[in-house]
């Protein structure tokens, strides 16, 4: 029904298009097909104002006056005539020219064509790329023109690829042209290139089909390798998330022996601290937004750490020597913390924004690396080594280890055990809080945040070998990479099940984890 | 535990018990030959050989860290040596068996650091050690459920813990736990007793009592005693082996061993 | 002694994984009840809400339902979100003969005497959404990713959609169906799979039945991997204003959702409702969403039915409900059908940077909810009619009412 | 040797209380008409029945945790498997009364286009087979899992966490619709059991009594095991596992036996639970459920059996009341309860009461746990 | 320096010490003798603060310390070599020694060379984990660790247990050396009578939680002491 209607509209619109050369009137409509036609017309018109108008349309700043179909661009409060750029008086009767995905697509294509003539080489290359992806036959003249002008080698190559791709879809391209279009596309070697060649599977010419098949095979080999590398990267990044979530637990559980069920809630507190910091920055100093995460890190450490110290002072300290009972008490604490956060912040997700340096992705030899993930990987490694340093190289670390190995004897050596206990638990909790800052970037900031990480965290710590920080690191990365390598073949659910079963079986082989402490020291 | 790579042979000191001598010794109750144990690169045993006859008592001395306890660990299956032979009764290859199987053959052990079942009463500790079937079903329905108090009290009298029979073992002092462990060993009634430092923390009088006790036992059992108390070793009146750096340094009567200058050098001191 | 009241049960999780969605529904019910009381209550009596917390635990739903009906003697219950919670309480409602108003879009394949479904059936959400995506305005999608959480609603919906797409001439290799576990949070592989699938040169669209918590990381990953709506639009069936409040919507502009209600739809009723809600929550930023409207409709229908029947007796209310009409907040009038589903308009909204939806498409008129899907083998012959046939699963072939 | 009696005073109190409940509850429910002041509503009967099923689960857990030192964070898995076995039987009993009227296939299979019943559903239409499976499936899993883990000497937190991994993996697996067990929705809408309508009042009372009896039998079995020499060896294993090896015992045998029996008890608990709540779904495998069961035991008193059962009832009763009375704040109350119990009743309700009034510590009392971190805590073994 | 006056100590309901008194002075060795389970270890635990006393006074340099936490007593100058060694098993030998830095001022935080002179084996094993050492080696480490804190009062519980004869002699020499420096008071619990006798300046014999015999070494009647030590 809707399709039929659209078709009908198209039929009505088509002759209208032929009659009225001015594309501007097309915009004065509620009908997306009209607006679409307007965009195409504007792009083809070569009007120097086209870029501005399209940008305004895409941003929702383009208006029309229903009475005479004049177009206006709104820039802040100021209004200007779209066609001339002359300032115009304010008008209440204006209607917005609406854009939906279809229109935005058209705008992108149009901007692409316009950008082919941009003075900026990067823009031109992007535009050529866009044409390659869109494979819009209408862009061919613009491509040819651009190719003739182009001086930059890399842009030229992209343009050639785009032209080849367009030629392949253009009806009536000669067999020779089709054949010679294949090598540049094959050289491009990515998924889109493969898509372009796949389109030839029904080509009438035997030779073209063969060449395309060869091209596809070549690209496939390359992509398979890339794919494997990509999956390893995904695994590393999943591993770093696991590491971050687990590392605080490696202290409270691994070092101190507290079965800390409230660990996840510490992570959650860190995430909510980030939220609060960002709210504050948004309200008071929007200019600092880019720094919001950096500011959140110490804040989250302090907040979660302080809560950790309180928990230790009021509950855990009565339970040393009864490790299993810490499970019961901290489970109670975790319930209460969840409900506290739910009461204060509500049950729904809170929005934590990503600063500019963490959004988007870049291309590394064909691998797509998202910036957010990259920072998280770097961050988790930094946290890991920072912690390693504290525990191994500082006197606080030595005291911590002494106290957790033999509290009574440590006291007899003059170590203030209550202080060390509180600080150690605070450190573990604080690190969990820091993890919350990072996790707020990729997951829900909700009262349930912690729950989703607690099991995985315990698995990582145990798989790596309780008490071994290196073990935690290796376990997190191993599980991350293994999971991500398995996922494409078995799907997310089976991959995860497989991983759990693997851990169960692995523990049979090494009953004390990957980095088991060995020797008499452990048994005595 | 990882028993890493096989190490190059170490020159053995003391008595040679190489393969050539094996014929003579397989009649022995316990026969150890060329045992080597490595912990993370540290060579705890470097070709230890030892042979013990039926109903023989043997005292083992040697510096701290010489490998005495490690040797017992090898015999009881706690530690797997990298190489070597350990035969019991001439036929049983101890290196192929695990701890319960070895215990089942009749090898009992007292640990250097007393290890008892802390939440059980002293009497129950003995009950669990009593010789008899060890299987799960047997313990559900078997005789162990009907053991009379007297047979346990007999043992407790010997080790002087009768007044403590209903106390949880956790409440015992260090020395009392030593005694309890000896009591458990008696209850187990094994063919071979491995006793690691039985008189550590005992008074001189108790030490004497222990020596007498062990000598009585040795009448119809084989006993290996590790001790540093030379007076006690002398009181045992048996053959003495001195270990050093994981191998036998000297063997013989107490007088000859304690006169050996090397033993004096590394162990007895001046 | 306090005067006699009519008790109304509210059975929504206030803790656990579903609290995130269900808590607002409890609040909206409290608001509606308070409003009704301000208007004088029902049948001259005040309404008294009874709130319990089934804690996202399905057996606990059944237990709490039993408690509401047996102990608190409520006249009707408004509640449940997940299908399994509904399935869990179903036997209780049947046994104790009470009324449940279920406000969430679901997979269909059910029509029970004691349940009134005020959310969308698949034909009121999924099919129109796909129609839109295939249309010129929707971008003429030719290749489809059906991405869902592994449970009954996505499974069934995707089954229906697969059949529907094939009937429209889409080839098997142009449909990719994918399931992930509940609470899935690492979407890197899945998103890159979608990206790869979408680079085959045909216009590709994603139909997402991803549930609950998993959506936020999914959209964050989409944003991170730079998949824009102009490349591959994602059409979601479970993402509303509430969910979007937790995400930075800017990278998601243009992705779509299909619902029967959007907060951004400008009607006087809706504006009043939003104002009332924001005042009730004392939060000028509080958002409204589709299941809230469903409760609004369901509650008002119940009030009308009680008044029509002159009693809160479930028996009479159940008989009175079919045919009751209630104005939608977004225009048009919802009508309770004999199959206990209602008529609904279907809107397609595109995400705006503000986190609201821009309605880009609306079906002509209202669509009646279908309990049994026409696309599924087992159910295409079934019909639900509690008025004349008195049966929820009447088989038009065998002319028998199954299961009774 | 002064033998511990099979039923000690607290056991008598427990059994008597249980017997009383099993008589009084049906009496109040069936004997008085609804509306009478003494009438006990049927929904409460089922609620109590559910508590008793949980109590049996807690008892099973206490057998392995309290006496054997195996802190299983995955006992919910056995409970759920027992529940599924029962659920499958109940599903098959629906027969052609399902919405699609298919005489063989349950509804969810019809609309997911199953053609035939998967092989593992065969036989479940017979009650005897299902009852066997209620014992056999959890028992077998418990046996295999336990045998592997105990033979490899996996102990302490390592064991706890892999039991958690086990139940988590099962949860994910059962969530999959392709498992053919109803996916997330699980099995529900049961009609009858052995021909009795599961909704009927009489049935609810009978299954309540059956649960009470099962709990009593479970208690006696657990008690028999723990007062015998077997129980003493279990405790010895708990305290110093490797020491028992040098005495010639094979701890893995003892642990596996206890674990298997415990798993079967949990399975029975699950099977009795399902008809009373009317649904079994993968949520029962959720690790938090298993952790909660551990908490019941801790609240009641680990190593006391009676305490475990009591703890299950107390915590669940508190949950029922609190989720109704203070739906917005019940988590605070429950959380506080857990903290308070740990701090002020370190041995749980029954354990602390026994210490106060019981005089001498029994053998089952817990040792002061060693003050050493978990990687060291498993074996207190000397050189 | 140290004076213990009439202390009572309980484990739960069981009394382990009844009105025990003891004194120790710098440059002097005080030994406590007695059979198993008479309360020697309990007395030392009371002194170092591991077990609270219910009655009585413990003074160090005239200051009452029975209310202090164990770590504050360590900071006041008490070092403890416990029965059973209690080495930190996963710390290396070096780190075990460094735990003794806690009560020290920053500039004093180094391991005195004399410790390695007394126990050369520690130097060889600096980087092995404490828990891996043999029993006797651990005992030496425990003494060394206590000395790192430069205590005013050194409390040793059966230091010869499990030690080879030559090292027992070394330990004896070490104690004599420390005594000779005249700064440190030493309390020594021992079973090895002859050895203890040769080292001590004053002695106390315990039985059933009470001191039954005490005095200076010159007045010691061996037979009387031995009577209390036999079964
Ligand atoms: N599990 C282990 N891991 C690492 N090293 C070990 C282990 N067991 C023993 N060792 C080392 O092996 C050596 C021998 O130890 P063993 O305990 O056998 O000595 P010992 O002769 O019994 O000494 P002592 O008389 O002091 O008890 C020691 O240096 C010890 O550090
Ligand atoms: N933790 C404890 N709990 C209960 N009773 C204890 C505890 N520790 C020691 N006792 C009891 O207190 C008494 C004194 O014990 P203590 O350890 O002081 O003896 P000791 O003289 O050091 O003996 P040994 O020479 O064997 O080391 C003993 O009867 C012992 O049973
Ligand atoms: Mg030794
Ligand atoms: Mg002592």
From TrEMBL, chain A:
Pfam families xrefs: BPD_transp_2
UniProt keyword annotation of Lyase present: no
Keywords associated with the record: Amino-acid transport, Cell membrane, Membrane, Signal, Transmembrane, Transmembrane helix, Transport
Record carries keyword Cell membrane: yes
Topology class, membrane: Multi-pass membrane protein
CDD domains on file: TM_PBP1_LivH_like
Sample GO molecular function, one term: transmembrane transporter activity
Alphabetical GO biological process terms: amino acid transport
Transmembrane segments: 232-259, 289-311, 323-345, 365-391, 458-482, 488-507
Principal location class: membrane
Subcellular location field: Cell membrane
Xref: InterPro entries: ABC_transp_permease, ABC_UrtB_bac, ARM-type_fold, BCAA_transport_permease
Signal peptide: 1-20
GO cellular component terms attached to this protein's record: plasma membrane
Family: Belongs to the binding-protein-dependent transport system permease family. LivHM subfamily.
Protein name: Amino acid/amide ABC transporter membrane protein 1, HAAT family
Origin species: Methylobacterium pseudosasicola
UniProtKB/TrEMBL annotation, chain B:
Domain of life: Bacteria
Keywords assigned by UniProt, alphabetized: ATP-binding, Nucleotide-binding, Transport
One matching Pfam family: ABC_tran
Listed InterPro entries: ABC_AA/LPS_Transport (IPR051120), ABC_transporter-like_ATP-bd (IPR003439), ABC_transptr_urea_ATP-bd_UrtD (IPR017781), BCA_ABC_TP_C (IPR032823), P-loop_NTPase (IPR027417)
GO cellular component terms attached to this protein's record: plasma membrane
Record carries keyword Secreted: no
Sample GO molecular function, one term: ATP hydrolysis activity
Domain ABC transporter: 30-270
SUPFAM superfamilies recorded: P-loop containing nucleoside triphosphate hydrolases
Protein's name according to its UniProt entry: Urea transport system ATP-binding protein
UniProt organism field: Methylobacterium pseudosasicola
Automatic annotation (TrEMBL), chain D:
Species for this entry: Methylobacterium pseudosasicola
Topology term for the membrane: Multi-pass membrane protein
Protein name as annotated: Amino acid/amide ABC transporter membrane protein 2, HAAT family
Annotated region described as Disordered, given as residue ranges: 364-383
Pfam families, per the entry: BPD_transp_2 (PF02653)
Molecular-function annotations in GO: branched-chain amino acid transmembrane transporter activity
Major localization listed first in the record, in broad terms: membrane
Entries under CDD domains matching the protein: TM_PBP1_LivM_like
Automatic annotation (TrEMBL), chain E:
Molecular functions per Gene Ontology: ATP binding; ATP hydrolysis activity; branched-chain amino acid transmembrane transporter activity
Transmembrane spans: none
Pfam families, sorted: ABC_tran
UniProt keyword annotations, A-Z: Amino-acid transport, ATP-binding, Nucleotide-binding, Transport
Gene3D superfamilies per UniProt: P-loop containing nucleotide triphosphate hydrolases
InterPro entries reported for this sequence: AAA+_ATPase, ABC_transporter-like_ATP-bd, ABC_transptr_urea_ATP-bd_UrtE, BCAA_Transport_ATP-bd_LivF, P-loop_NTPase
Domain spans labelled ABC transporter: 2-231
GO-annotated biological processes: L-amino acid transport
Annotated PANTHER family: HIGH-AFFINITY BRANCHED-CHAIN AMINO ACID TRANSPORT ATP-BINDING PROTEIN, HIGH-AFFINITY BRANCHED-CHAIN AMINO ACID TRANSPORT ATP-BINDING PROTEIN LIVF
Protein name in UniProt: Amino acid/amide ABC transporter ATP-binding protein 2, HAAT family
Organism: Methylobacterium pseudosasicola
Upper taxonomic lineage: Bacteria, Pseudomonadati, Pseudomonadota, Alphaproteobacteria, Hyphomicrobiales
């Amino acid at each position: 029904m809707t399709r039929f209607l659209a078709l009908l509209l198209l039929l009505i619109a088509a002759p209208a298009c032929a009659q009225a050369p001015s594309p501007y009137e097309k915009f004065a409509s509620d009908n997306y097909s009209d607006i679409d036609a307007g965009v195409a017309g504007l792009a083809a018109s070569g009007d120097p104002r086209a870029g501005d108008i399209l940008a305004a349309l895409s941003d929702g700043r383009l208006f029309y006056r229903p009475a005479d179909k004049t177009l206006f661009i709104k820039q802040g409060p100021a209004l200007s005539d779209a066609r001339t750029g002359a300032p115009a008086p304010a008008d209440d009767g204006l209607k917005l020219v609406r854009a939906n995905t279809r229109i935005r697509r058209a705008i992108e294509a149009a901007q692409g064509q316009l950008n082919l003539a941009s003075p900026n080489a990067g823009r031109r290359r992007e535009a050529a790329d866009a044409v390659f992806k869109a494979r819009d036959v209408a862009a061919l003249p613009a491509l040819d023109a651009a190719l003739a002008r182009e001086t930059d080698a890399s842009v030229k190559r992209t343009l050639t690829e785009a032209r080849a791709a367009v030629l392949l879809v253009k009806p009536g391209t000669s067999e020779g042209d089709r054949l010679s279009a294949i090598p540049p596309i094959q050289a491009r070697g990515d998924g889109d290139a493969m898509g372009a060649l796949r389109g030839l599977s029904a080509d009438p010419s035997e030779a073209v089909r063969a060449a395309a098949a060869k091209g596809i095979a070549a690209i496939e080999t390359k992509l398979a390798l890339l794919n494997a590398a990509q999956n390893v990267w995904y695994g590393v990044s999943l591993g770093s998330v696991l590491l971050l979530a687990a590392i605080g637990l490696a202290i409270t559980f691994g070092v101190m022996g507290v079965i800390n069920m409230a660990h996840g809630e510490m992570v959650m507190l860190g995430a909510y601290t980030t939220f609060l910091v960002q709210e504050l920055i948004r309200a008071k100093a929007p200019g600092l937004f880019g720094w919001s995460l950096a500011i959140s890190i110490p804040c989250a450490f302090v907040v979660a750490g302080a809560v950790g110290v309180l928990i230790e002072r009021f509950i855990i300290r009565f339970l040393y020597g009864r490790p299993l009972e810490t499970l019961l008490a901290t489970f109670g604490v975790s319930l209460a913390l969840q409900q506290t956060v739910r009461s204060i912040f509500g049950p729904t997700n809170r929005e934590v924004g990503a600063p500019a340096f963490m959004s988007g992705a870049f291309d590394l030899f064909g691998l797509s690396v998202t910036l957010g993930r990259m920072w998280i990987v770097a961050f988790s490694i930094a946290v890991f080594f920072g912690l390693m340093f504290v525990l191994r190289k500082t006197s606080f670390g030595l005291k911590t280890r002494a106290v957790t190995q033999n509290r009574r004897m440590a006291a007899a050596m003059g170590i203030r055990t209550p202080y060390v206990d509180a600080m150690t638990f605070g450190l573990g909790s604080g690190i969990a809080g820091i993890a919350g800052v990072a996790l707020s970037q990729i997951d829900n900031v909700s009262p349930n945040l912690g729950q989703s990480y607690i099991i995985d965290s315990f698995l990582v710590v145990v798989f790596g070998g309780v008490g071994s920080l290196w073990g935690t690191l290796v376990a997190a990365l191993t599980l991350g990479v293994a999971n991500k390598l398995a996922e494409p073949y078995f799907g997310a659910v089976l991959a995860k099940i497989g991983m759990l079963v693997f851990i169960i079986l692995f523990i049979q082989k090494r009953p004390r984890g990957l980095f088991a402490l060995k020797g008499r020291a452990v048994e005595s | 535990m990882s028993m890493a790579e096989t190490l190059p042979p170490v020159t053995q000191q003391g008595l040679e018990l190489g393969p050539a001598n094996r014929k003579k010794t397989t009649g022995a109750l316990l026969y150890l030959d060329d045992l080597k144990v490595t912990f993370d690169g540290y060579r705890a045993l470097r070709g230890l050989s030892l042979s013990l006859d039926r109903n023989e008592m043997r005292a083992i001395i040697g510096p701290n860290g010489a490998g005495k306890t490690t040797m017992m660990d090898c015999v009881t299956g706690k530690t797997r040596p990298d190489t070597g032979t350990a035969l019991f009764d001439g036929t049983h290859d101890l290196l192929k068996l695990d701890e319960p199987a070895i215990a089942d053959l009749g090898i009992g052990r007292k640990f250097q650091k007393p290890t008892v079942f802390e939440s059980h009463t002293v009497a129950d500790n003995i009950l669990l050690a009593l010789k008899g079937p060890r299987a799960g079903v047997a313990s559900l329905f078997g005789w162990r459920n009907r053991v009379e108090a007297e047979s346990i009290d007999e043992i407790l009298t010997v080790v002087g813990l009768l007044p403590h029979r209903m106390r949880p073992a956790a409440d015992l002092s260090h020395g009392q736990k030593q005694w309890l462990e000896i009591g458990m060993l008696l209850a187990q009634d094994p063919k071979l007793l491995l006793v690691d430092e039985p008189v550590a923390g005992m008074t001189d009088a108790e030490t004497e009592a222990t020596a007498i006790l062990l000598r009585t036992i040795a009448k119809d059992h084989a006993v290996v005693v590790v001790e540093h108390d030379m007076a006690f070793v002398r009181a045992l009146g048996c053959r003495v082996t001195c270990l050093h750096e994981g191998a036998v340094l000297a063997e013989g009567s107490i007088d000859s061993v304690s006169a050996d200058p090397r033993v004096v050098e590394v162990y007895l001191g001046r | 002694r306090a005067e006699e009241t009519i008790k109304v049960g509210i059975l929504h999780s206030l803790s656990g994984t579903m609290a995130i969605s269900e808590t607002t529904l409890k609040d909206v019910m409290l608001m509606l009840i308070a409003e009704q009381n301000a208007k004088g209550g029902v049948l001259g009596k005040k309404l008294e809400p009874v709130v319990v917390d089934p804690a996202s635990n399905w057996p606990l739903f059944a237990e709490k339902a039993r408690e509401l009906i047996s102990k608190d003697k409520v006249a009707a219950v408004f509640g449940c979100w997940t299908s399994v919670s509904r399935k869990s309480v179903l036997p209780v409602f049947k046994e104790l003969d009470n009324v449940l108003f279920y406000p969430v879009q679901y997979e269909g394949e059910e029509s029970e005497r004691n349940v009134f479904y005020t959310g969308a059936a698949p034909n009121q959400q999924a099919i129109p959404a796909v129609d839109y995506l295939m249309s010129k305005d929707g971008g003429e999608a030719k290749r489809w990713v059906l991405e869902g959480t592994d449970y009954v609603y996505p499974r069934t919906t995707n089954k229906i959609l697969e059949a529907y797409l094939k009937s429209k001439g889409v080839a098997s290799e142009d449909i990719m169906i994918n399931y992930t576990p509940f609470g899935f949070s690492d979407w890197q592989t899945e998103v890159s799979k979608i990206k790869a699938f979408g680079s085959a040169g045909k216009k590709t669209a994603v139909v997402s039945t991803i549930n609950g918590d998993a959506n936020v990381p999914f959209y964050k990953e989409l944003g991170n991997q730079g998949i824009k709506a102009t490349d591959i639009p994602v059409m979601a069936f479970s993402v509303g204003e509430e969910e979007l409040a937790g995400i930075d919507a800017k990278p998601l502009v243009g992705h779509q959702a299909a619902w029967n209600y959007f907060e951004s739809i400008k009607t006087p009723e809706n504006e009043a409702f939003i104002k009332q809600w924001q005042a009730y929550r004392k939060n000028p930023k509080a958002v409204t969403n589709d299941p809230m409207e469903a409760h609004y409709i369901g509650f008002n229908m119940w009030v009308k039915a009680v008044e029509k029947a002159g009693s809160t007796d479930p028996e009479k209310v159940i008989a009175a409900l079919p045919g009751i009409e209630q104005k939608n907040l977004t225009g048009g009038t919802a009508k309770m059908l004999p199959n206990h589903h209602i008529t609904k308009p279907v809107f397609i909204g595109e995400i705006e940077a503000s986190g609201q939806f821009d309605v880009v498409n609306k079906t002509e008129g209202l669509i009646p909810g279908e309990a049994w899907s026409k696309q599924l083998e087992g159910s295409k012959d079934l019909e639900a009619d509690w008025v004349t046939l008195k049966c929820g699963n009447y088989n038009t072939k065998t002319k028998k009412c199954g299961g009774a | 040797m002064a033998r511990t009696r099979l039923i000690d005073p607290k056991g008598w109190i427990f059994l008597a209380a249980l017997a009383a409940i099993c008589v009084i509850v049906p009496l109040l429910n069936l004997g008085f008409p609804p509306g009478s002041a003494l009438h006990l509503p049927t929904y409460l009967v089922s609620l109590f029945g559910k508590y008793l099923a949980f109590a049996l689960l807690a008892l099973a857990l206490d057998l392995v945790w309290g006496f054997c030192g195996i802190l299983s964070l995955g006992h919910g898995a056995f409970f759920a498997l027992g529940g599924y076995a029962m659920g499958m039987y109940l599903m098959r009993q629906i027969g052609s009364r399902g919405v699609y009227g298919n005489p063989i296939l349950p509804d969810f299979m019809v609309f997911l286009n199953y053609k035939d019943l998967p092989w593992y559903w065969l036989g479940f239409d017979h009650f005897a087979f299902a009852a066997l499976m209620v014992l056999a499936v959890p028992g077998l899993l418990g046996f295999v899992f336990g045998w592997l883990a105990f033979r490899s000497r996996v102990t302490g937190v390592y064991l706890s966490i892999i039991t958690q991994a086990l139940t988590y993996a099962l949860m994910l697996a059962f969530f999959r619709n392709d498992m053919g067990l109803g996916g997330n929705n699980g099995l529900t809408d049961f009609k009858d059991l052995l021909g009795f309508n599961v909704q009927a009042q009489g049935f609810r009372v009978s299954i309540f009594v059956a649960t009470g009896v099962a709990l009593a039998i479970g208690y006696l079995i657990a008690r028999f095991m723990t007062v015998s020499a077997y129980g003493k060896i279990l405790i010895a294993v708990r305290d110093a596992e490797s020491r028992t090896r040098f005495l010639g015992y094979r701890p893995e045998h003892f642990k596996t036996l206890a674990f298997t029996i415990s798993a079967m008890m949990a399975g029975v608990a699950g099977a009795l639970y399902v008809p009373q709540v009317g649904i079994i779904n993968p949520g029962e495998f959720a690790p938090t459920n298993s952790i909660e069961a551990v908490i019941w035991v801790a609240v009641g008193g680990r190593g006391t059996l009676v305490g475990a059962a009591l703890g299950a009832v107390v915590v669940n009763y508190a949950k029922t009341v609190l989720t109704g009375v203070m739906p917005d704040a019940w988590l605070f109350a429950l959380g506080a309860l857990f903290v308070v119990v740990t701090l002020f009743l370190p041995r749980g309700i029954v354990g602390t009461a026994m210490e106060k009034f019981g005089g001498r510590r029994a053998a089952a009392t817990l040792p002061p746990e060693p003050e050493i971190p978990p990687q060291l805590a498993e074996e207190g073994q000397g050189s | 320096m140290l004076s213990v006056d009439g202390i009572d100590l309980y484990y739960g309901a069981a009394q382990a010490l009844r009105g025990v008194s003891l004194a120790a002075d710098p440059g002097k060795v005080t030994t406590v003798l007695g059979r198993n389970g008479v309360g020697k270890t309990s007395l030392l635990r009371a002194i170092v603060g591991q077990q609270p006393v219910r009655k009585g006074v413990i003074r160090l340099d005239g200051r009452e310390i029975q209310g202090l936490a164990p770590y504050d007593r360590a900071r006041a100058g008490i070092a403890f070599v416990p029965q059973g060694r209690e080495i930190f098993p996963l710390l290396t030998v070096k780190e075990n020694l460094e735990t003794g830095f806690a009560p020290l001022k920053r500039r004093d935080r180094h391991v005195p060379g004399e410790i390695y002179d007394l126990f050369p084996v520690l130097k060889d094993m600096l980087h092995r984990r404490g828990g891996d050492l043999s029993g006797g080696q651990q005992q030496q480490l425990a003494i060394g660790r206590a000395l790192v804190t430069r205590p005013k009062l050194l409390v040793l519980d059966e230091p010869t247990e499990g030690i080879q004869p030559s090292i027992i002699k070394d330990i004896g020499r070490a104690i004599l050396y420390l005594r000779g420096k005249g700064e440190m008071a030493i309390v020594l619990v021992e079973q090895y009578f002859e050895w203890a006798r040769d080292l001590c300046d004053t002695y106390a014999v315990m039985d059933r939680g009470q001191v039954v015999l005490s005095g200076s070494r010159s007045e010691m009647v061996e037979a009387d002491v031995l009577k209390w030590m036999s079964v």
